[in-house]
Amino acid sequence: MLPQPSSGADPTQPAPSAVVPRGPAETPPKGSIFVDARSDLAGDGTQQRPFSTLAEAVAVAHPGGTIVLASGVYHELVHIADTPNLTIRAEAGATVWMDGSVPIQEIKSEGSHWRLPDQAPDLDRSPTYTRGAPDNRKEGWRFVSPDYPLAADPSQVWLDGRPLRQVGARDGVGPGTFAVDGRDLLVGDDPDGHDVRIGTLTHALVVDAPGTRIEGIGIRRYVPSVPDFGAVVLGGRGDRLTSVAVVDSSTTGVSVQGENVTLENVTVQRSGMLGVQAHRAFGLRILGGHFSHNNTLGFNMAPNAGGIKITETAPLQIRDASIDRNLGVGLWLDESVGDATLYRLSARGNSLHGVLVELSSRVKLVGCRLTGNDGSGLRVQNSDQVDVWNITSLTNRRAVDYVQDGRTPGSSGAPRVSSDPRIPPMTWRIGRSTVANSILGASTGDAELAVEDFTRSLDADDLGMRLDTNVYRRAASPAARWTQVWTRPGQDPNVYTSVRDFSAAHHQDVHSVEQLHSKPMTYPVPQPIPQDVREAGQLPAGPQIGAF
């Protein structure tokens, strides 16, 4: 079931569970600094007399040192500024949460609601990445939807671990909701006998130092505004998160702003706007992990909401990640992303496209599963050299969708093209792309695959597209009228109701076949995947059709 846009979860429904982080089994190295939030001693960082806060440990840590956290809850904002190659990890088997919330204090009953006097934190409500600036004016490019005008207010209240939905005025406060009333908070549920918590801290970790490693901890209930970028901000070269869970952040969970950063087996769930944001994150790797149920506050899907959005980055590798049930695009590569490879990615049940490649170049999708997205499984917009090998894209609006609009580099109102020499050249024109060895179909829209130019100036036969050895799986009563849409200049595109007719007209998909529903049939002999792609993705040796 897709998430519904709302300023918080439906209080009648259980929230999706997050992975509970656990500390790694390895014994910490000699000289490690120890921290235990339950300690009431004046600690010195030894295992016998641990510090009580992570910030104390960071302040005395040496380059290359290790900090070990005992099980517990740490209400902290920690800045790692200038200690390189520092490791922060949970104790073996420990459950560690950095928590940005505090329990409520004074309560006053006021009939149908309860007042929490002087407990509303002072938070920034800027709706864009520019602090203090108003929302964008361009139609379709505003962060905040008029249907959910409070999305940019990061205020959050939780009742027994469940987020309450914010309303704009006292009259709207009822069960499952809260409102900000000056310096006070109003809640619509009787707090007596319940754990009611208020988000007060904007960040858990802000990392500027290179080589920082965070391992085996959880981060929850932080309240960053949009210009705060995220509950976790990684700005150091070679920083790494491993087996970290970031849940219930008011806007963005993790922001990557440094080079050669790795996110390994990271979970980001229930962020108010976006799970992961990355900009100029050259060499970013996302290895495994789960990114789901993000944009709970109902921000507009454009310019920046959903699962993962990455801009002006090359190279990029995403492998074995699940990006599911986000309100918006699952994975969005936008504005000068290049030399990107997506291996065995799963994007399911997102409320727009599973994967969107826009204004970018040199992207490969290999062995991916894209299913049940409300938009296209894969949408490629104004991007060239986007190759598709061995994907399974079923029950999306379109399985694979290459589209061209009127934007060109340098055109009025268009974003700038990156001048960084690490970014490959950007043509902003579809073409020079391969789709092979893939299972495509059961689409809910008008076509299974499309190459379509909305300006009606391009001829798909001249774009260097290469389609072959695919299986077009047609539903028993297909919603999609066409197997292929093929653009032509000056008029509506060519459309085809069978692979055979399309192949005869354009010499594409020559060895491809149609499959009625899942009726057994002989698949085409698959083409070999390029050796460099196979080796980099650690792919199985034998050729096959569809996702691995």
List keywords for this structure.
548 residues, mainly beta, 25-stranded mixed β-sheet, 13-stranded parallel β-sheet, 4 helices, 34% strand, globular, disordered N terminus, Beta_helix, Pectin_lyas_fold, PbH1, Right handed beta helix domain-containing protein
What does the model show?
The chain has 548 residues and is mainly beta. The protein has a domain at 328-536. Helices cover 5% and strands 34% of the residues. Strand 10 (157-159) and strand 11 form a beta hairpin.
How large is the radius of gyration? Answer: 25 Å
Low-pLDDT ranges: 1-16
The end-to-end distance, rounded to whole angstroms, is: 25 Å
Helical content (DSSP H or I, runs of 4+): under 10%
Could you tell me the mean pLDDT? Answer: 94
Number of helices: 4
Q: What share of the residues does DSSP label as strand, in percent?
A: 25-35%
Number of DSSP strand runs: 47
The shape is globular
* Structural class by helix and strand composition: mainly beta
| Largest sheet report | 25 strands, mixed
